[in-house]
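Lecture notes, structural biology module. Today: joint structure prediction for complexes of two components.
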Amino acid sequence: MSLYFGRGSNNITCRTAEIYTHNRLTPSKTLAEAKIQHLKFYRDACRRMPYILKNSSITNQIHPTQAKLNLATFLRQSLFARNPRVIDSLTIRGYDWLHSSIWCYNHHHNFVHMIMNPKIDDRGYNYLDDVRYANSSSFLKDFYSGKGEANY
Amino acid sequence: MLKLCQKISRHFKTSSRLLNNIEVFVDGTPVSVAPDYSILQACQKAGVVVPHFCFHERLAVSGNCRMCIVEIEKMPKVMTACSMPVSPGMRINTKSEKTYNARGGVMEFLLANHPLDCPICDQGGECDLQDQSALYGYKIGRFMEYKRAVEDKNYGPLVATVMTRCIHCTRCIRFYEEVAGIPILGTTGRGRETEVGTYVEKMVHSELSGNLVDLCPVGALTNAPYAFTARPWELRNVMSIDPTDSITPSIEISCKGGEVKRVLPRLHEEVNEEWIHDRSRHAFDGLKRQRLNACLKKKADGSYEELTWKDALEVLAEEVSKTSGNDMVGIIGEFMDVEAVVAFRDLMYKLGCENIDAKKNGVKLSPDFRNNYLMNSRISGIEEADLLLVIGANLRLDSPVINARVRKATVLNGLNVGLIGTDDYLTYDHTHLGTSTSALTDLLKGTHPFAKTLEKAKFPMILVGANVLKREDGEAVNSVIQEIAKKYNVIKPESNWNGYNVLHNEVGTVAALEVGITSEYDPKAKPKFMYLLGADNFKPDEIPDDAFVVYQGTHGDEGASRANLILPGASYVEKSGSYVNTDGRVSLGKKAIPAPGQAKADWEILRALSEVLGQTLPYDNLQEIRYRIAELAPHLIKYDYVEPYSLSWHTVPVKGEVNKTVISDFIDNFYMTDAISRASPTMAKCSEAFNPARNTNFVPEVPIR
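The predicted structure, tokenised, for the full assembly:
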């Protein structure tokens, strides 16, 4: 922990802007290590979410709790990654985002899709549909799954 | 025909010079206008905007807001453009300093007593006074006195009043007097004390009252159910039509997010002019209540089990496969679009079922020729006719918009109106010929006093309410009516006039007739499987107790309560579809919001079901199904158009015995006639507020509707 926060502080007690001060993102050797780093990033982002929303003046649009849930949904879209280096790169990109959001280098327009309305898709699950609707036409598949194009 | 009428009316002008256009100059630009134009109309023709509040194209000119004043050369003072006719060589100045100062002065007086409450006013953003004060008003105020305050009036639950904001344009007064035909409003007091209202306090009520909100140029009369829910700039507007009224008036659906916020009328001269009735305008909030949003299957104990689409269609397919085509019956609902009707027809025929729309209370009409079942003189034909005989329809309740047009024709063209059926205050003078079908037989014999009037008429029009044709003796009554039409020369192909008209009250019926669906109800038949396609107004005794009933529709109403399996359908604001109105005009309804839950467009459900049944229908999207419609009836893909057809060919109805019973009044409550309006809280409020039993001190001799 000391490597991550330094001076005995933790996720709650560290200052908002102290992201990179003690946090050295070292390349992970195993999948578990990479996942833990990624989880830490998520916890960091959650810890700073009220601050980010306040800085971006979007507290009237979304509650921090909902923003955290939305961010989780957004991050889950990358769950398919199994290579530690890929996960690390996601973590690094996450910290970049967090850092620039905290220091107000990033306009909230650039990340509202992450915290306000993350796109929820069925990546990783749609193979079930192929089995379930095996003998159906594309119309019926769309009808059942509700994915078809709207008819105007 | 229209040209002929215009030609005749031109002969009544006092001088032949008036036939010629005259030239006037608007801001130096020459414009050639008809001699009966007002200055305001001339300016409009020249493309010059003249601000106004009290002037309205469809109302009489009152000239009391004074906002439209313009300078005219060689006249000592500025004149109101709306009430002053043009004269040859007139030079109108709308941009002079004199006009500018005069307008500013008028605006200053209007604002002297108008409260500055735009931030809390519902008209904000679409207020004529707000816009015009920004453009034409002085930028400073000099009025330091107190503003007046006026007590609010009771215009019913649909119109919210803040009478302090009223600028006395008297549009509402003129609307009630001229269009709605209820001369109840007026001004009392003078100058600062002027108030619009009823002299003796009374609730104002008309089936067209929602139009007051559109007419009011300020925030004095606002849309009460819509109050404070949205600002106009937040709304997304979809141009659509309303199939809940059989004339399919053009409407604008305003949505915010996934919710319809309000419905406004659009201009359509040949259909609704610019009016819609209150049910069209306000019943949409019923689309949020009592909705079916999941497939439901009734269990043995009467409770419902929620199913996925896949399971529901499989249950249905199993039930269908058990039944032969002859034991099936399909009933088409009131608001069905042509797409759904065609898909339903195709599917049922594929299953070997020909009992489509075989209803006990079905309209006894033949689909062979279009003039058997349409309004052949068109809605606009009311203004060309000189006599109108209404049979079995209370126009004020059945179709208030048509009623407004009839009223206009009685006032402007001297239309003579006769009525057979329940008499009521129709807002214009009319002759009541009788309440029962015996009046029809008397007319046919020529013994009725009205027969002579009918004989003399040049362009007579007979309007038959569809409810008369739903009687058990519907075909026999229709046969008598056709004979009357023949005897009194109502159909004149040489003058391009067919005066035989049917006023339908369900667009679904017209769509079914258009694609040739007809079948007779067999009282002895005991169907084992019934498919209710959005049908809620059916007779419960048509359905045997042991029949398996499928209801595909929008609301948990009559149909769903009887159903064994419920499939959620999309309502008219949630799907795109074409509808045929009582005129034969095909109009396009547009999707405005997504359907709730699992609900799908009706034709999509039928298409999916067909595939599960192994009888796949050959269309996958709206375009393909419209090709299919075009195969059956090519005129159904020509939108906002009435395909011409022969006026003389028609099927002769079979003669029969006519019951001499009373033609009863079919609408007991104007505000609740279908599943959507029955679920609407606003319509419930109206039913309570406008219940005639509440508004009278007298004990009724007969039970009040």
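Point to remember: The radius of gyration of chain B is 28 Å.
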